Fold:
Amino acid sequence: MKTVITSKRNDHNAPFDPRFGRAAWFCMIDDESGKPGFIENDQAEATGGAGVKAAEKMVELGVQKVISGDFGPKAKELLEKFNIQMVIITDDHQSIKEIISRLTN
Amino acid sequence: MPRKKRLRKVVAPPGFKGYKPYGSSQYKKQYVELLYEEYEAIKLADYDLLNHLEASKLMGVSRPTFARIYESARRKLANAFVETKEIRSVFGNARLDGTWYVCDECNARFTIPIHIRDQACPICRSLKTKIIKN
Structure:
């Protein structure tokens, strides 16, 4: 199963990004290979439709779970339609590494 | 203790709060409670004309479970008609589109897509989760 966590930078110590559509990076964890990878979000600076584009990207990548701080109404609708699980965590002072360790324990 | 009921997916809740018989001298203010999932079962099977297998998949339950919900729905309607009772729609064990859950342990909020079988928190695997009513 593929999981995506929104991240502010492309390394493991990077802080978690509470935004979904305008997150700087997406950290993708593949349960099968176990290797996390980082994907740059080219919509981070977009003026509109970033949430929808990001949600479309999740569908393209075959992600099944997205962890972020919040989702906009359009992104929510799209992710719901494609049966992608949305998880909202509020504590934004965590690093990507900490969230991954919480997931695997 | 019986196993927890798996929540039945309901696409749209019924557009009414209930139905009342009129022009009857026998109406004794009794009512039957039609659950959201029973309404959905009637709708899928008799309005959208799906077979039970297709309908059960849409609701995220097994075919036999769907058949039980459907049977219960029909019996309630028949009971209401024959005994001139009021029909009220109540929430039941439904899960609507856009239902969010919250975990009591770590406060994470999450949705549960149809292919996920359990209701555990995706972050800490705690089972202490509940529906956020909106």
